[in-house]
Structures are given as structure tokens and as C-alpha cells.
Amino acid sequence: MDYKDQVILITGASNGIGRQLAVEFAERGAIVAGCGRSISRLKEALKEVRRASPQSVMIGCDVSDVEQVKGMIGKVLEDYGKIDILINNAGVGMRRPFVETSLDTIEGITRINYLGALYCAHEALPSMIARGRGHIVNISSGAGKIGTLNMAAYCGSKFALNGWSESLYHELKPLGIGVTVICPGPVQTDFSRDFRDTVPKAPPERIVSVAAVCQEVIKAIEKNKFEVVMPRWLCVIEALKRHAPNLFRVLAQRRFRADVVQPAKTERGKIRNESNS
Q1: Residue range 74-99: mean pLDDT, rounded
Q2: pTM of this structure
């Protein structure tokens, strides 16, 4: 696929998967418009991207804020006249029992992981539809296919992202616009640095590299593939859940049971969470 002069908008481009994708597409001749919340990291990423793509840009934007998203995408369209590919990569995660998690935290995760992608697509799609071409890639997670202990808020946001992606696929395919959702297992990035020592931990041998995820993203775009679940071990587990859901739940309960902890309570008998701890 020829990416020369294609405009590719990548959210969460300051680090991890987003940053690597920005570099990969720049080296393939694309113009990259990246966004993120960390201005210092965006500046570092831009230096790397512009070595191959001098026209590329990085824009400060919190995708959970719809007004910031409107301003960011409006600027990209004004400067470049189009968005060929939108990659919704921005995301946050956590690992904590649901009842101990504040509602503010849950809402924040949902706004970034799900609503942020929705906001970006809603702003970018009219120009794609007018041109009769484009592609939207949503970076989801294996946690959007399989519910995981102590990740209810994160799983909820990714399940929502997957369902929305599937509905969007049916709406947009007849209009010449592709939709792809990528569901990787645990990825070796700083994404989980704040909760990497909490349970249940992923075995080191099951963690996939950023490079491997980026390769799958590019292949999925070029093949116009809707869904990618990776790596192979996750495909097997997801298939077991799909074909034998009751057996899967029994096995999952056995795996997770040892990591279930009774929620801590305050002196008044209420469950201790982030808002009252």
C-alpha cells in the first residue's frame, strides 16, 4: 500500500504503540498528525517522526474533552485538507477491584478509552464520507473480548469500543470507509506502569512487543481486515470462550480465585475506595 502523502491521525502518539506507529507511517511516506496530553513527550516524538516526514505535526489534545478534539481535528483538516486514516490509540488502564474504584476514575477511563475514540471519529468522518474513502482503526484490547479480574472499568470501556466498532463497520463499509479493531494481549509499554505489580499479572512470556502490534495494525489496514486478536495464545482463549462459555468461566474462576481479596472497609463499615481512602 502506498502511504505517500496520506494524512494519518494518531491519538496517544507521544508514547508506546502510538509513537511507534507514527514513526512507522512516517518512514512509509505518510504525513503524520499525532496528538497526546504530554507536550514534552510529543516534542520528542515529533523530532523522531520529522526525520522521515518533515510535514508531520504533533498537537496537544486530551481526547476525553470533546472541545479539544473538535479543535485538534479542525486544525488537521484546515492544514492538510483531509484525514485518510484515523487511529484511535489513546488509552488508560488500571487494575483495582470495582467496588474500591471511585466513580470519577471509572468515568475518566470511559471518557478516554471509549468516548475519546467516538469523539475523534465523529469529527473526522464527515470529511471521509464526503471523499468516499478513509479508514478508522481502534486500538482495543484482549480485555475487550474477555472480562478480567480487577479490571471491570477498563474491560467495560474496551467491550464498548469493540461493539461500537462492529456497528460502525456495517454503517461505513458501503460508503467506502474501512473499520478495524485491534485486540492485543498485554503489551510491553509504560501503559501499565502504575499497576504492573498488582494481580493478576501476565506471565512475561505472554507479553507482546510494541513492534508486533504495529505490524498487525499495518497489515490489517492493507488487507482491510475488521478484527485482529493477537497473539495466538489469546486467539485460542477467546475461541474457547466463544465456543464453550460455561467451561471457560469455570476455568477462569479457578485461575482468578487466588487473587480475589476481600475489600477493605472503613470504621463506618463502608467499602474503602479512592474517594474515601
Answers
A1: 96
A2: 0.93
